[in-house]
Amino acid sequence: MYKIAVLPGDGTGLEQVNEGLKVLKAAEKKYGFKLETEHYDLGGDRYLKTGEILPESVLEELKTFDAIFLGAIGHPDVKPGILEKGLLLNLRFQLDLYVNLRPVKLFPGVSTPLKDKGPDDIDFVVVRENTEGLYAGAGGFLRKGTPQEVAVQESVNTRFGVERCLRYAFEYCRDKRDRKKLTLCGKTNVLTYAFDLWERAFYDIGTEFPGVELDYAHVDAISMWMVKNPEWFDVIVTDNLFGDIITDLGAMIQGGMGIAAGGNIHPGKVSMFEPIGGSAPKYTGKGVINPLASICSGAMMLDHLGEGDAAGRIEEVVAEVCSSKLKSLNAGQMGYSTSEVGDLVAEAL
Length: 349
Ligand code: IPM
Ligand code: MN
Fold this sequence. Notes:
Blueprint: E1 2-9, H1 13-31, E2 35-39, H2 44-50, H3 56-62, E3 67-72, H4 82-94, E4 99-105, E5 123-129, E6 139-142, E7 150-153, H5 159-176, E8 181-186, H6 194-206, E9 213-218, H7 219-228, E10 235-238, H8 240-253, E11 261-265, E12 271-275, H9 292-305, H10 308-324, H11 338-348
Parallel strand pairs: 1-2, 1-3, 3-12, 5-10, 8-9, 8-10
Antiparallel strand pairs: 4-5, 4-11, 6-7, 11-12
The chain binds 3-isopropylmalic acid (IPM) and manganese (II) ion.
């Protein structure tokens, strides 16, 4: 029995989590576990009505669950930044979810914009540091609103934070991958403080993992290689902002935001699973968005909870549905509605 907090969030978030939950429920019977879910109405609507974003008492409750299943955050009537920082980033920071794990995997039959590349070429994961860097909120304004205004935004990199993220990546490589190549993505030629620390920690820890091949690429170069030679990558580890950027690129080469899933993870503690894409408010209630990102994030949640067989099977079924049923992974072009796609996966499971 696992206790799951469900946070549909904003926009199409509810449609996404509904299908994710449908598939998780189908897996329950077959794999002999049980999920006890509780919904929370955190998000833009609650904020507009009550002014509350993430009340302290709710945060404390969330800590008592085994995992959190999130839809999407972002409301058209709320100024950008308020919900993102107050809810999504706040949860990542308060729960100390220091790894953002984002697989980039092209399933058979799914079209990629990369010419001549297929499922054998596009199959890697990004381990994004999730609590520090430019996201930490360090910095501020001087003389705000004057012509002499200064805005400083600092990247915070602690040896502790960097090391635990790198260790996660090394262990992931050792335990989960066949090729065992770990690429550090940085910018050591310009960010000579932050990535000096990352690089030293990377090669220090690397000595403890003789089976892992160490590799380095600058973030600009990796953006090029992810398009030109994605087959070079197996596991990429990087800081918060670079990880944010390259995983949107990753989502596109794996077939789009409709299938891109991720996990905000603190090993052994309550962790949070979500589609990488946003709330797509213009599609709300239309039944056209692709729920596979939520379904795949549900599979990642099961894997985190120790239900690896069920997680693996959901991934296989998603691959089958992609190759044999869906016309496209894009919203409105799948040939099926949102809930029909959920049905296809649940029934095949
Ligand atoms: C993501 C999103 C968030 C981020 C935003 C919504 C704050 O883009 O999960 O990648 O930048 O991390
Ligand atoms: Mn992002």
